[in-house]
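Changelog note: in this version the structure field was regenerated for every chain. One regenerated record is shown below for reference.
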Amino acid sequence: MTREAHFERSTRETRVKVRVSLTPGEVRVSTPVRFFNHMLETLIFYMGASGEVYAEDLRGFDDHHVIEDVAIALGTALDKALGDRIGIRRFGWSLVPMDDALALTAVDLGGRAYWVFRGSFTKGVIGDMTSSMIPHFIRTLATYLRATVHVEIKWGEDDHHIAEAVFKSLGLSLGMAMELINDRVMSTKGSL
């Protein structure tokens, strides 16, 4: 099994290309949202994955369409890379401190999309990224990855640290859940 995938999404608003491999290696991210680039690199690195994410903003309204369309493309590519999901651990969880911030995430790759995001940011913008786009990114990623994702910001004062703790934790949780551990479907039903 290759556990790699490529996905492209083009709309009147954005052009997105994602290539992902569920093995460690080089991570390259280029979108017009610099802080989002940092978070995506962090997510993919801590997943133990590699690949490229490239996005263009064709209309320049704000960061919403780029972030949403990257989440769609990345979620779809990860779903394809997982294939039939036979042998994966399925569940993953992580608690990550980042200086003053602490974030908890848990993931189920059982094929059902659901998400919960608890917590908030102190400001409306982190660098050049709208902070409300972080839960939106996670919801969209969960939908297209066909995953249940729970995120809880336990506490924190610095929004950069809070966001980084969330993305590191989510990366670790996804990496754990995607790990190949046997040749069975991890469900008592016999299928996901």
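Spot check on this record: The mean pLDDT is 96. The beta strands are 4-10, 14-21, 27-30, 50-57, 91-98, 101-108, 114-118, 125-126, 129-130, 148-155.
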